[in-house]
Amino acid sequence: MTSADLGFLLIIESLRTPFLNTFFLAITRFGEETVLLPLICLLYWIFNKRLAITISMSFLPAVIVNNLLKVTFMILRPWLREPRIIPVEGAVGSATGYSFPSGHTANAVSVYGAAAQYFSKHRLTKIILWVFILLIAFSRVYLGVHTPLDVIVSFLIGLVLLVLVHRIMAALDSHPEVDKTIFLIGFGVIAAGTAFVLLKPYPIETDRMLLKNAMEAFGVTGGALIGWYWDRRRIHFREVGVSFPAILIGVVGIAMILAIRILLKSPLEAAFGVNVGAFIRYSMIGLWITGLYPFLLTLIMKKRQKNQHD
After folding, report:
1. Domain identity same for 100 and 148
2. Phi, psi (5° rounding) for residue 84?
3. Could you list the residue range(s) of the whole structural domain that residue 115 is in?
4. Do 218 and 64 contact (CB within 8 A), yes or no?
5. Are residues 166 and 63 in the same domain?
6. With contact defined as beta carbons under 8 Å apart, do 136 and 94 qualify?
7. Does residue 183 sit within a domain?
8. Do 10 and 159 sit in the same domain of this protein?
9. How far apart are CA 126 and CA 139, in angstroms?
10. How far, in Å, CA of 150 to CA of 100, rounded?
C-alpha cells in the first residue's frame, strides 16, 4: 500500500458518519453480482434483449479480468495490510477474496457504463448513470475495503471494455457473421484463463475461494457465450415484453438459477471437486440465461401463437 493510499483512507475514515455509512453500504450493493445478474436476466428475457447483450459483453469480461488480476497479484485487503484501517461494519461480508482490483467498481462501470452508452442520446440518463458509477466506486474506498489504486485500475479496465463493446456491437450490426469469430475468441480466452487459474502455483496460505470465484466467472461466461451463439444461429429469441406473464417468466427463470446454484452445489463438488464443480454449475447458469430458457420461452410463444391462429 502506498503512502498516498494510506493517507487518503485515513482521511476518509475520519470523515465517516452513521448516515454516510448507511448510505454507502446501500450504494455499494448495486455493484454486486447478486444484484447485477438478476437485472441482466430480466432485461434479456423481458424488457430489452439488446441492452442486456450490450451490458453482458462488458460485464462478463470485466468479471474475468478482475478475477485474473486477483489471482495474479493476490494483494490482501487494506485492513489486513495496515491495522490503522478499520472497515465499516457490514462491508466486510461482501469484501471476500483479495483486494486488487475492485470488482464492484469494474462491475459498476461495465454495467451502468454500458447502459449509459446505450442511452447516449438521453443526456440526463447518462449523467445519472455515471454519477451512480462514481458513487459505487467511491463507496469501496469510503467503506475501507479497497485502496484508491484498486478502484482507479478497475475504473480504467471498465472504460477500456466499454470501448471494445461499442466496436463489437457495431461490427455485429454491420457484419453479423463475425459472431463466429467472437465466439471462438471468447472460448479461447476462457480456456487459457481457466488453465492459468488451475495450473498457477499458489502459496500454501492462499484463500481457496480465490480459485473458486475465478472458476465461477469462467463458467458463467462460457455458458452464456454458448447460449448467445445458439440464439443467434438457431433460436432467435425475442424478449417477451412487459405483461402479466412476464412476472411469472422472471420468477421462474431466476428460481431456476437459484436451484442450479444451491441444489447442484454439493453433488457437483463431490463428483468433480470444488473448482471444477463450480465451473460446471455456473456454466449451466450461463447457458440457462442466454440459451435454454430463451429456447423454452420461444417454443411456448410459438405454440401460443399457433393456437391463437387456429
Report:
1. yes
2. -75, -15
3. 1-174
4. yes
5. yes
6. no
7. no
8. yes
9. 20
10. 5
Single pTM value for the model: 0.91
Cell of 208: 481457496
* C-alpha cell read off for 118: 446505450
Residue 167: count of CB within 10 angstroms of its CB: 10
Structural domain includes residue 40: yes
Helix 209-230 to helix 49-73 angle, to the nearest 10 degrees? 150
**Residue 125 CB neighbour total at 10 angstroms:** 14
Task: Collect all residues with Cβ–Cβ distance below 8 Å to 83 and sequence separation of at least 6.
Answer: none
Judgement on whether residues 22 and 165 belong to the same structural domain of the protein: yes
List of residues 6+ apart from 200 with CB closer than 8 A: 71, 72
Residue 108 placed within a domain: yes
Q: Cell digits for 137?
A: 466506486
Cβ burial, residue 275 (10 Å; 0-12/13-18/19+): buried
Contact 98, 78 (CB under 8 A): no
Measure the CA–CA gap between 260 and 18, rounded to whole angstroms: 38
E strand spans, the chain:
none
Q: Pick from 136, 130, 131: which is nearest to 117 by CA?
A: 130
Number of domains in the chain: 2
What whole-number distance in Å separates Cα of residue 182 and Cα of residue 168?
A: 8
The H-assigned helical ranges of 119-208 are: 123-142, 148-174, 179-199
pLDDT per residue as tens digits for the range 255-290: 999 999 999 999 999 999 999 999 999 999 999 999
Do 19 and 136 reside in the same domain of the chain? yes
- Mean per-residue pLDDT of the chain: 91
118-152 pLDDT, tens per residue?
998 899 999 999 999 999 999 999 999 999 999 99
Which residue, among 22, 73, 40, has the nearest Cα to 224 in the 3D structure? 40
Clarify whether residues 73 and 159 are in a common domain: yes
Residue 191 lies in a domain: no
- Dist CA 286 CA 279 (whole Å): 10
Closest alpha carbon to 283 in 223, 216, 238? 223
Spatial separation of the C-alpha atoms in residues 58 and 8, rounded to whole Å:
30
